[in-house]
Amino acid sequence: xxxxxxxxxxxxxxxxxxxxxxxxxxxxxxxxxxxxxxxxxxxxxxxxxxxxxxxxxxxxxxxxxxxxxxxxxxxxxxxxxxxxxxxxxxxxxxxxxxxxxxxxxxxxxxxxxxxxxxxxxxxxxxxxxxxxxxxxxxxxxxxxxxxxxxxxxxxxxxxxxxxxxxxxxxxxxxx
Length: 175
Fold this sequence. Notes:
Blueprint: H1 5-11, E1 13-16, E2 24-27, H2 29-32, H3 35-46, E3 56-60, H4 63-74, E4 78-82, E5 92-99, E6 102-109, E7 118-126, H5 130-141, E8 145-154, H6 160-163, E9 169-174
Parallel strand pairs: 3-4, 3-7, 7-8, 8-9
Antiparallel strand pairs: 1-2, 5-6
Helix pairs in contact: 3-4
């Protein structure tokens, strides 16, 4: 039975030189192929927040959707899709953020959250923290509160926690 962090860490595959030379990509697709390991990860992501009053989970496109929706189901709350520009059908708000080489933007529906909502941000990976920080800004602009952020993997050498120092951060696996 695959239930502990060490077993799950072994399932994550390294792909060298992806998406560019010199990068070692942490590939979660083997984890997604193992239903027992996937369920264990979703349970571990949700468990610390079971009685915290979370009203919605926000997940960033696209792998944040994979983990965020089942975490929301386990917490019996709604899910907020955080998308790239132009992908959501109703009125949106947008937040731009810096990348290593340029900028990007994320959007949520303007009515996705409101004052009184307590939001858990879920994603597969914490690297530099830019995407999570932009998501937190979007959530805050709705009047809701970001209670915490949880990640399957944290790349500690990129120091993403520094960009998110105002938030409660939890990561299951650290490299």
